[in-house]
Amino acid sequence: MKVLVAVKRVVDPNIKVRIKADGSGVDLANVKMAINPFCEIAVEQAIRMKEAGTVSEIVVVSIGLPQCQETLRTALAMGADRGILVETDVEVQPLAVAKVLKAIIAKENPALVIVGKQAVDDDCNQSGQMLAALLGWPQAAFISKIEVAGDHADITREVDGGLEKLAIKLPAVVTTDLRLNEPRYVTLPNIMKAKKKPIEVIKADTLGIDIAPRLKTLKVEEPPKRGAGVKLADVAELVNKLKNEAKVI
Amino acid sequence: MSILVIAEHDNKELKPGLANTVAAATQLGADVHVLVAGSDCAAVAAAAGKIAGVTKVLIADAPQYAAPLAENMAALVVTLADKYTHILAAASVQGKNFMPRMAALLDVSQISDISAIVSADTFVRPIYAGSVLATVQSQDRIKVITVRITGFDPAGAAAAAAPTEAVAAVADSGLSEFKGNELTKSSRPELIGARVIVSGGRGMGSGENFKLLEALADKLGAAVGASRAAVDSGFVPNDYQVGQTGKIVAPELYIAVGISGAIQHLAGMKDSKVIVAINKDAEAPIFAIANYWLVDDLFKVVPELTSAL
Ligand SMILES: Cc1cc2nc3c(=O)[nH]c(=O)nc-3n(C[C@H](O)[C@H](O)[C@H](O)COP(=O)(O)OP(=O)(O)OC[C@H]3O[C@@H](n4cnc5c(N)ncnc54)[C@H](O)[C@@H]3O)c2cc1C
Ligand SMILES: Nc1ncnc2c1ncn2[C@@H]1O[C@H](COP(=O)(O)O)[C@@H](O)[C@H]1O
What pLDDT, in 10s, does the model give residues B200-211? Predict the structure, then answer.
């Protein structure tokens, strides 16, 4: 079966972002970018399913600036087969992402779509669930295990109190949680090989979809700073502070 | 303006968080309805009606809501949506699961994880692991919102119970089937809503060593949490994880033991009232947000603290 994986280009999660001086947004100039960690897990999952013989082809899709090709190349170097870049300089919010992916899925007909549970820049945690809604497909969000068995998939998902098991019909959309797998490192030979893999570029405005943002960012700011704390000498002092100063025990 | 809040429960009890979500809703308008969708869930509906600010409780009681599958929950809420200007749920795993699906069916965006309300269409939400606060304005006809419950003090108890009204269930989607769950059993409080939390990181070294934290937690009546590294190392179950991609907590007292203080961990606990950090590395970033800290070996400090309490 064919699998489609959506990958987002985000600020490297190890980098502390800066706010633009006018407070209009986060400063992305010359900032190190990376594949969203949850998308990396999604790509890894598709590759493992291909290695296990369940999956025949892995198509990776990214929506955004031309630089998203780098993100697609990372996924191709990991082991995906081909890439699709839906190019736009509009800020694509989750509903728009879902609509664009739906249009691509109509052409590609995958049996399974794997997306990250959350993009670590906007922290929205929406796109996969929205996509499943627009397709009328079942969804399994925050999965830590998936096994395809004929026309359905057996799922384990992470929920607030522990784990939940589902059986979902295929085709379906699933979103990855941290414990699904540990992504492989890309090797130099595979990076070289990935350069030859095809990436199709589609201009977003040729899809006839309204991708205009629905949410307007009025301003961004730093959260209030916590007051400076104190280093204590020993446990006795800690107990004293908690009892008599903070009054929390 | 009527506002719909969707309750989370296990058919017997409400999950903590509804009272906070109702408190957020009452900032938006005075007519706040709560939807309880479940199976044999009358007791839950009764409890929901006793939260101050709730003007009506809608009950959808049917076997297909025994487990809150996203497909069924979204389809149900869509049938009610047109009467409301805002639809809210807690930004729990459940809310994050069905709310975006419901929003997409309505062709509206979702405003995720709001931590404050500026006006009926403008909200504050943390982005980039909480290192940035964005103020966003929605242009949609219905505002679909998930609420970061630590941002809102819970509503109190109502003087009189709100009336209830049954609403029609939607047939089971047949798309997915609930096969059971494995819930972590613990005699300690749940992380969400706990007054005190004791969390351990990679520095704990093993799952066995978490017993030290459990002993401390028991003295304090605390919940036990963990960093991602502790969970990934298999020391404790997944649902212990606090952070950007785990649980967001803001207890009165948060004690971080053997946790370095990566931004993704801070994202989940930096709004705690008092933060204590125990770490042997004098340069650990967690100290930057701690009220009190000890630079020492946790294997010495934690048992000492437990016996001093
Ligand atoms: C996409 C993404 C999402 C993430 N989400 C989360 C999340 O939700 N929650 C989360 O926690 N992390 C998350 N992380 C991981 C995060 O970046 C850190 O890797 C993680 O928080 C580190 O955990 P730690 O502090 O326990 O381990 P470490 O960073 O290894 O720190 C261990 C600490 O223990 C101290 N120590 C060791 N031995 C002792 C001792 N005997 N006595 C006292 N101190 C000792 C050390 O000095 C050190 O500071 C995420 C990362 C990514 C990329
Ligand atoms: N611009 C994008 N291009 C490709 N995939 C995306 C994009 N934005 C979001 N996604 C996918 O949707 C997931 C969740 O993103 P979000 O809903 O923004 O938190 C990501 O992990 C990706 O798999």
Answer: 999 999 999 999
- The ligand with the least distance to the CA atom of A38 is 2
Burial B18-57 (b: 16+ CB within 10 A, else e): bbbbbbbbbebeebbbbbbbbeebeebbebbbbbbbbbbb
Mutate to test the interface with A, among B77, B105, B112 (most CBs of A within 10 A): B112
> Measuring CA to CA, how many Å separate B5 from each of B81, B185, B216?
11, 28, 37
Can you give the pLDDT at residue B16? 86
CB of B43 less than 8 A from some CB of A: no
CA distance B128 to A27: 12
Min Cα–Cα distance to chain A from B192, Å: 9
Residue A49 CA to ligand 2 center (angstroms) comes to: 21
Pick the ligand that lies closest to the CA of residue B245: 1
ipTM summary value: 0.97
- The pLDDT tens digits for B147-203 are 999 999 999 999 999 999 999 999 999 999 999 999 988 899 999 999 999 999 999
The confidence score (pLDDT) of residue B1 equals 80
Please state the pTM of the whole predicted model.
0.97
Q: Do A124 and B112 touch (CB under 8 A)?
A: yes
C-alpha to C-alpha distance for B276 and B253, rounded to whole angstroms: 8
pLDDT digits (tens, 9 = 90+) for A49-62: 999 999 999 999 99
For the segment A12-20, the average pLDDT, to the nearest whole number, is 94
**Candidates A95, A161, A169; nearest CB to B239:** A161
Instruction: Locate the ligand 1 atom nearest the alpha carbon of residue B259 and give its number.
Output: 25
The DSSP call for residue A72 is H
**Nearest CB partner across the interface for A238, out of B70, B263, B305:** B305
